[in-house]
Amino acid sequence: MLRVGISGYQIWYHSIVFAEELQKSSTMKTVSVFDQNPVFAKRLGEAAGGAKVFTNIDDFIDSGLDIVIMAGLPSTKLAEIRKYAAAKIHVLIDKPVATTSADAWKLLMYAIKKK
After folding, report:
1. Domain ranges across the chain
2. Do residues 91 and 67 touch, judged by C-beta distance below 8 A?
3. Distance between CA atoms of 21 and 48, rounded to whole angstroms?
4. Which residue among 19, 30, 31, 98 is buried most deeply as judged by most CB within 10 Å?
5. In the structure, what pLDDT confidence band is assigned to residue 10 with cuts at 50, 70 and 90?
């Protein structure tokens, strides 16, 4: 079973949809969710069927994840992906990936260097 984490609810309702849809999977399970806002994190955890809820990204990373679905604010994605890459966690990044093309380019270059 692939252990999935979902990062970021904030203003993106589709994080809730990801969490609800993953409950139907026979090969993946959302085990942890992360958002810096405790209210958003709790709501995302509920949508994920009672997944562990984290408001601290380092604790989220240490929760035993195989993959993270990043659906949070574009302005936080570059910093987050650096942490996931360092922890060797696979990442699926929802769009938009960044707020500027320069940040998107940095994200791409960082991902290429980590291969």
Report:
1. 2-113
2. yes
3. 9
4. 30
5. confident
The CA distance from 72 to 94, in Å, is 8
Instruction: Give the residue among 71, 53, 69 at the shortest CA–CA distance from 5.
Output: 69
Q: How much is the pTM?
A: 0.89
Q: Output DSSP code: residue 79.
A: H
The dihedral over CA atoms of 104, 109, 113, 114, expressed in degrees to the nearest 10, equals 10
Percentage with pLDDT > 90 across the chain: 63
pLDDT per position as a tens digit, 39-56: 999 999 999 999 999 999
Hey, what CATH class is 2-113 in? alpha beta
Find all residues with CB under 8 Å of 13, minimum gap 6, and list them.
none
| Residues comprising the chain, all counted | 115
